[in-house]
Amino acid sequence: MPRKNSAAEPETGPTWEQLGLSPVSLAALRRLGFERPTDIQYELIPHALRGRDCLGQARTGTGKTAAFTLPMLEKFTRGAGIQGLVLVPTRELALQVDEHVRLLGAESRFKIVAVLGGRGLKEQIAALRGEPEIVVGTPGRVLDLMHRKVLSLAKIKIAVLDEVDRMLDIGFRDDIRRILRAVEAPHQTIFVSATIDEEIEKLAKSFMHEPVEVNVSQDMLTVEGVEQNFVSVHPEDKFHTLVGLLKHEAPTLVIVFTKYKAHRVAQGLRREGINCKEIHGDLVQHRRERVMKSFRAQQTRVLVATDLAARGLDVMDISHIVNYDVPADPSGYVHRIGRTARMGKTGCAITFVTPDEGRFLTEVEKLINKELRCFDPPWLIKRAPSAAQLAAAAPPPAETGPVTAERYKVPRQRDEALDAIGLRPVRRTLGSRFRSRRRFRR
After folding, report:
1. pTM for this entry
2. In what order do the strands lie in the sheet with 302-305?
3. Where are the domains of the chain?
4. Which residue, 216, 325, 382, 389, could crosslink 39 as a Cys pair with Cβ 3.0–4.6 Å?
């Protein structure tokens, strides 16, 4: 979404009128309280209005959704069938984009339909038969509706891939190819994301015609308002360190990202008396929606999530992001911490780093072109050093010549009576009992 102006922000910079938007779109932006475009909107919208294919990269929370929505609202015609298709990687992001498009298109009176798994298929089919102009959905459900001959892409004018780096990874690549090949009429493509590497850029351009590249990241993929820190912690101390952080810092809203332990971590936090819920791929859709509704309403203070929630979710007032595990994919870090410090606000991101995850932290720092600060908060649990660590840290012993065993320094105790009759002790070895002949029973 576009950004609202703060009271202290100067009234300078480009305006919406300079982008060539219609009075209807300008009225919608005024109603929503958005006075000036962000960098990605100012750079991408004019190219999109001219019909150019666009590949846009901008930091999280800078209004990429409005950057591709406003050109669609400007170029579409009411009652002319499905003219816009927006593909997103997750169900939660589909619902969020659907909500934002509806807000921006209220004055235009376009029909928008969200199609995604986990919701009633009959209701979505009925909505598609109502001839909407814009469809927002996940690739799996879009393909399903295409195979049922309910969703036609014959009149598509603009196809959008949000979070294009995730959409074109191994999991979605074939589905995207099948969907875009079904677009028969000449059309325009707009791909946007916060992270686009060389491989994804090359693959994205294979679906586009002479695209305009818009990159306003300025070599900094993360928002300046995020204070980024990390703490060194033992794997077995992670949970208790997290509990200490939540009780000591008392954040307004916090998302705890973990790779696969969301349910276990959330259960442990509830046992500690912390108000939290979890969201992951194993939850059915209606439960996921209830969790997000509770979190947005601030009825739930802590959300424990897998990377399902790291893409595009726009929840205001998130004060802290905790990376319980360092993501193996460095771009995942960018999307995780992008949930805070949105629309000019500030936030804090804390990453728990175990000795085995140091290499992942290095890859993250190389990607974001910034060194994370290691700090020592009072809630950090410090484990006593082990015997091996103490031995490794101890200075080497001084050289004093050959070492003589203690038993050789003590004189051997002799029996005077045995010595008087000439009996001397004979040294006995382990194998001496085998030197005499042994008798075997026949």
Report:
1. 0.74
2. 276-279, 302-305, 254-257, 320-323, 347-353, 226-232, 373-374
3. 16-215, 226-382
4. 216
